[in-house]
Each structure stands twice: as structure tokens, then as C-alpha cells.
Hints:
Elements: E1 22-23, E2 32-37, E3 45-51, E4 55-61, E5 67-74, E6 79-84, E7 90-95, E8 99-104, E9 109-115, E10 120-127, E11 132-138, E12 142-146, E13 155-158, E14 163-169, E15 172-177, E16 181-186, E17 192-198, E18 205-212, E19 218-225, E20 229-234, E21 244-247, E22 264-269, E23 276-280, E24 285-289, E25 294-298, E26 306-311, E27 317-322, E28 340-345
Antiparallel strand pairs: 1-28, 2-3, 3-4, 4-5, 6-7, 7-8, 8-9, 10-11, 11-12, 12-13, 14-15, 15-16, 16-17, 18-19, 19-20, 20-21, 22-23, 23-24, 24-25, 26-27, 27-28
Amino acid sequence: MFGQPALSTTTTTSTPNPNKDFEVVSPPEDSISCMAFSPSTLPQYFLIAGSWDNNVRCWEVEPNGKTIPKSMQGMSEPVLDVAWIDDGTKVFMAGCDKTVKCWDLASNQSMQVAQHDAPVKTCHWIKAPNYTCLMTGSWDKTLKFWDLRTPQPIMTINLPERCYCADVDYPLAVVGTAGRGIVLYQLEGKPQEFKKTESPLKYQNRCIAIFRDKKKQPAGYGLGSVEGRVAIQYVNPANPKDNFTFKCHRSNGGAGGVQDIYAVNGIVFHPVHGTLATVGSEGTFSFWDKDARTKLKPSEAMDMSISTCALNHNGQIFAYAVSYDWSKGHEHNNPNKGNAIFLRPCFEDMKPRSGS
């Protein structure tokens, strides 16, 4: 059991830790773009993180919250997304160099397995009963599916615009594009589009995550925008009112009640409770109960944006990355502020309140 934070969580680094969480040792040296925990097929917990220093790092996370750096693999340009293969032996790394590499953890070797005509923004492993493949989404406005044994994609699907975010939970895949587009795909038999829609949010898609119903089947998705708002959308809502949006990652305003509004940089759904966490540009995370439409827990603010987040497979550990997300442009980047990843025991914090 991932225990409660001990006093050892206070560190001597330059990154403040107002939430008293476990700090991951040897963090990336540039903005952290993506993170993923190892699948349930592995007995230990591993965390991988990709960053703008062109590297993907892997740590083992011990039950007491201690982290051990295990290995690192580089790409020629910044890393935009990472994903695990279902048996936990390999990691996929998608990047600005227009390729996806497969990193074999046992041999510590990587090889290219996918290619696009523009940077690859997302990568996801699909394990279906009758096939397995890698799904990649790019700014070249295509979604491609790859059998790792062949150099050419087994399928290419044209997107209405550049791929900005995506998620996969078999048999559902969902992609958010530029121009506020959303495309849903069913993956049974073979991947095919079954619904194209427009985001209910007025501003650019930023992050997307699939949630499950009480029977643990994929039922819908949460979509975050650059304008401090999240949409909860069911694939087949029983009632149109089941779909709703809520405001988040906003400050309570200064003079004249003006609100500062920040991007939602990440959404993850709890695998047991069905609740969700969001992280934002203003440097906070929050836990929410979408069914009761309430906030479960806000965090103390970090002194820098939270750029991405992840939950481990059993919902015990919440990871969040503190690094500049470039939302205020180059002139607001402070190179003296280090990047950090924090781990928080979250199983109790993310439980729905009784009676809700």
C-alpha cells in the first residue's frame, strides 16, 4: 500500500512542495510534456516521463513513495507523448522528429516503429481480442495504426484537423483536433469512425480522457480546453442533461472581480471511483466527482504550471509534473525554476463522498 507522506518529502531542491507530496528524484531538465504509469501486468510500479530535453526517463516507485531512476532513452527532438505496451516490456515515445520509437526496457534499445509528415502528438497501444497495434496522431492531420512487425501503417485515417489530444480505452478511441473537432472511433474488428462532433467548449481542445460507467465499460470522455473549463460528454447519454461543462483552474480575480483563466493541461479518471483529477496552468490540481458535480479536493498552488498528470493502474498514486507550459510565452520562462514530478497517495482523496 502506498502509504501516507513521511517527513522526508521536504527536499532541498528549488521546487517548493506546498502539498507535502513525494518528490521524484532526478527529474527531467526541461518542460515535462507527458507521463504514464506501468500497466497492471507488472508487479512493481514504474513511471515514465517525456520532456522537451528530448528524453524519456523511467523510475521505479516503491510502496513507501521512494523513487529509483532506472533508465533513460533519447530522441532527436522533444518528446510529446509516451505509452506502455500491455505487457509492460516496452515503451512508445512520440516526438517532434515526426517519428515514434519503441523502447525495449530489457535491452535498453529503441527502434523506430512509426512515421508521420509532421510532429507526432499522441501515441496509444490498442489491445483488441483479434489484433494489437499502435495508434499515432499527428499534426499532419492523420491518425495511423501500426503493426510493429511491418514498416508501413496497416491503416491511415484522415482527420479534419491537426491531432491535439487523444485517448484509447478499448473498444473506444477519441481524438480532439484543432478547430475544436472531436472524432470518436470504435475499435472492434478494425478501427473505424462512428461519430464526428464539435467540442461544447468555445476554445481550443487541450486534453481528453475516457471514463467508464458502473459496469467498467467506456462510456464517455472528459475534455479540457485552454479556457479553464472541462466538458463531460457521454457517447450515448441516457438524458441530454447528462452532458455538462464546468469551470476550473481560474483565480478569484483581482480588481473589479476580473478572473484570471488558465488552460486545463491534463485530465485523468480514477479506475475504481470514477472520479477525476484536473491540472492547470496556474499550478494547481483538483479532484472532482462528476456524478455529484462537486469538487472533492483542491490543492495548494505550486509556483509554476502543472503541465501533465497520471494515475497508476489501481488508483493509489497520482503523479503531477511541475514545469513551465509556455502558456505565457517565452518571455515568462524562468530557467532558474527547476522541473519537478510529485507523487501523491490519492485513493482516499478521490473517493466520492458518502451520500453523493
